[in-house]
Amino acid sequence: MVAPRNNSAHPSPVFDRAELKEALDRALAEAGPEAVARRAAVVAVLRTTLEAGRERARALLDAERNGRACARRLSDLMDGLVSALHDIAVRVLHPVQNPSTSERLAVVAVGGYGRGTLAPGSDVDLLFLLPYKTTPWSESVVESMLYALWDLKLKVGHSTRSMDECIREASGDYTIRTALLEARLIQGDAALFAEFEQRFDREVVQGTAPQFVTEKLAERERRVNRAGQSRYLVEPNVKDGKGGLRDLNTLFWIAKYVYRVKRTADLVEAGLFTQEEADLFRRCDEFLWRVRCQMHYVTGRAEERLTFDLQRQIAEKLGYSTHGGLSAVERFMKRYFLVAKDVGDLTAIVCAALEARHAKPRAMLDRLVGRFRRSGRAISESKDFVIDNDRLSVARPDVFERDPVNLVRLFWIADKLNRAIHPDAARLVTRSLKLIDTDLRKNPEANRLFLEVLTSTNAPEVVLRRMNEAGVLGRFVPEFGRVVAMMQFNMYHHYTVDEHLIRSIGILADIENGRLKDELPVSNEILPAIRNRTVLAVALFIHDIAKGRPEDHSVAGARIARKLCPRMGLTDAETDTVSWLIEFHLTMSTVAQSRDLSDPKTIESFAATVQTLERLRMLLVLTVCDIMAVGPGVWNGWKGQLLRTLYWETEIVLAGGHSQIERAQRVRHAQEELRRALPTWPDSEIDAYLARHYPAYWLKVDLERKVKHALFLRSADKELRSLATEVATDAFRGVTELTVTAQDHPRLLAIITGACAAAGANIVDAQIFTTTDGMALDTIFVSRAFDMDEDELRRGARVAQHIEKALKGEIKIAEAVAARPERAASKAFTVPPQVMIDNALSNRHTVIEVAGLDRPGLLYELTTALGKLNLNIASAHIATFGEKAVDVFYVTDLTGSKVVNPAKQGSIRRHLMEVLHGREKEREPRPAKAAVAAR
């Protein structure tokens, strides 16, 4: 399927040097003596050679599927062009009959090009090495070569330095030193280059290994932080991301510097790698080069980020296909993340070897374990393990063979003692994975130890990640092994499935340790009341374990739990609860974000599903951990408030209380909370303001936003504005908030969403309310367009101005939306369109749920279509999950009744499906007679 078919260290060339020389000589002869004509003739021949060579390399890449061979061929191609230019410059354009000692020049490849590898869009890094200072001859040669390379549209990174300058600058600058470390002579004075190599080794490298290693590892840390700390980001940077090509480069730079090796094969002779590990290094290098070269060819530029749009194309190029519930792109990305993991393993091996040589200061590999204690005391928990170099390691090399339970016990002790695991021990673990068999999986002691790690409040996320990276987790829990490195091909999930599950366990520990009490007050309060935290931890660990299967992962996951939980020692009752939590782990989030929580039927239905207070508590905490582990910015205060409201409303029902009484008490509590937050407001003014909002508002909105709303509406009232807007940015969530107040009417929501669409603002969420005096108070959240707040606020102000003009009737929304430039939808994703119409979810309204591929203007088109169908929107619930939009509308017909007529429902479904397919035609809406109810 995807294995490279040519592993030759010296792949077949893509051009013939002798033929190139003949073509150049012929072109020069035909061009005559005029310099401009000669240069044009040379460039024309080289351009033809370059384009043909690149296409030949591309064809061989597709045929052989060997990325490193492609990179070597492209480097050889560039060597040929540079050599030919040098030959023409010194032989034809600037010949010297009797050159002096200063009229010498070596053309040297440095950096990545110096390694003999180039991607199609890579820079060509050249050093023009001189014995002394620049002479008129050397300046002329360099200029002639550079002008020709620039005429070829190549990105050339170049420097012209004397040998002394190279040594001096390399001594003071690690970037220059690293580039020169891989210097390779292309053409020119070989003796000059040999002298440089000797001086560089003697005057720069010798005796400076510890400093170089420290700087390179610190540089790697900075680079990884810029590209994204986790190697499991779903749009990874192939060159600079964690587990990418630059990590392999860094390993080789360090090995070359410390062990004085020249080739990967030398790493085995130096004792740094075993033969298997050296082979792994080469396989990782080849795969990453294969991906990178294809990315450059597909995009026509030096694209290093493997975006969603590219992933599908590269998966096809590399020969992946759909199989076993995973799409071709998901299988490709799983392979990518497994390679990134292997690169991480190789990094740990090198770091351990450097520590043993004292070439690297003692440091922890992961900053997350920075709180681990540093103590030299003996380990009382087991005689099979010791503290080595301040880390947990094995006492003897046979500890795992003698007792395979030690493969789990090692991580249990690491968590118990707050110790990092020594890389040598981790290396031995990966070599012992075959010992994890059926007997060990059934071993009660091994399962007890694993369960204690899973339920630890110390650092379970760190320890589980170490278990996963070592390969233990996937072998000990084979069902978990199926989701290791599995990406979810959507824009919602930021991490692979295994990373998501591990992060969710870490969030649970953070809640229990009180680190999130301000952000998650209810979860922090109720977690101690949960009687069986083990059940909650196990459910979190396996809630997505059935992802990637053809059937619903919640149902399949519940079935896996029934098999897995007894093995871990859980009782039948505990197993039932874990299974239930997994089957319904999406329910609370769905209800909170897409249902009207002020509708009693919503709470009654949810309470009937949950049934007990213990389940409700566990489901809330599980839901919160699940959402927070999806990725940065996914959790926000609005979702938190919705979940809290749903929890409180359901708690009352399950506890046998009277919902209306309790709701009234909580409304009063919320009002008093706002009163305390506005101490300068006169009592009469705040009393009047509190009376302006319906109970649903007080239950659904968090205090911070209530304060903003109060100040916003107060300002509008003082300025006698019946229409007002306000703009704020939220960099963390990556959204801009547009708050609008206006006289409410049935078409208001459609006009606001249409104005956003016409202004090019993509709506990702919305909060919609009506006050008791008939004013709408709507907050629309749109995607950011600029990184800087100043720029984004100016853009938000323009969108707000568009909304105000639309509401004043100064612009026609339908025309403005139709006139907006069409933006091509992403071809990376497909979301099957769905329209659900339900009369059982509410006592008063028909609930219409619409799901499909999100796009600018979708919400406007949906609300406009509902208006044309003479439906009144009582409330709308807008949610975006990456590329998927899920919009729910509570509607009635013009008489205020539910839509029960089958023909009418069919018409609604047909019109909304046309919108989702982009086929809805603009028609003038019929005027709706009834006003929007409390929204």
From TrEMBL:
GO molecular function terms attached to this record: [protein-PII] uridylyltransferase activity; phosphoric diester hydrolase activity
Region annotation Uridylyltransferase: where it falls in the sequence: 1-378
PROSITE patterns in UniProt: ACT, HD
Organism: Alsobacter soli
Start and end residues of each ACT domain: 737-819, 847-926
Protein name: Bifunctional uridylyltransferase/uridylyl-removing enzyme
Entry keyword Magnesium: yes
Record GO biological process: regulation of nitrogen utilization
EC number: 2.7.7.59, 3.1.4.-
Domain comment as written in the entry: Has four distinct domains: an N-terminal nucleotidyltransferase (NT) domain responsible for UTase activity, a central HD domain that encodes UR activity, and two C-terminal ACT domains that seem to have a role in glutamine sensing.
